[in-house]
Amino acid sequence: MNSEVLILYTRKGCCLCQALEKKLSNICLKKLKPSIVLSIVNIDSEKLSLDIKMKYTNEVPVIVLDSNLLLKKIELPRVSPRLKEDMLFYWIQKNLNILYKTS
Q1: In this structure, are strands 72-75 and 4-10 parallel, antiparallel, or unpaired?
Q2: Could you tell me if 82 and 50 are in contact, meaning their C-beta atoms sit under 8 angstroms apart?
Q3: Which of 87, 90, 40 lies closest to 63, judged by CA?
């Protein structure tokens, strides 16, 4: 069974990106329903498509759910940098609940 993937588009040297990456890395994403895995993607990577770069280059950090269950990628709302790890976990779960109930 394929996992749901939470993609964090980030950039080296971006303090907001680094802070969100650290928080997401410290959260047990497997405890979410459905469980998800984290994928951190540098927006400046040469491997990234031009479409993605153009869409998110001035927006990072950006969180996108790559859902195998919903068969699409969904950009999540911008998260407050003030959220602590426990509240970030609940924020993600709330967004997952909304996405999977409306599908």
Answers
A1: unpaired
A2: no
A3: 40
Q: Is the pTM of this model over 0.90?
A: yes
Q: What is the pLDDT of residue 3?
A: 79
Which element (helix H / strand E) includes 65?
strand 62-67
Measured distance CA(5)–CA(2) in Å, rounded: 9
Distances in Å between the alpha carbon of 32 and those of 3, 6, 14, 24, 86? 12, 11, 27, 12, 12
CATH homologous superfamily for the domain 4-101: Glutaredoxin (3.40.30.10)
- The series of mean pLDDT values per 10 residues for the chain, 103 residues long, is 87 96 96 95 95 95 95 95 96 95 70
Give the separation between CA 50 and CA 48, rounded to whole angstroms. Answer: 7
- pLDDT score of 101: 87
- Please count the other Cβ atoms lying within 10 Å of the Cβ belonging to residue 43: 22
Q: How far is CA 98 from the centre of its chain?
A: 15
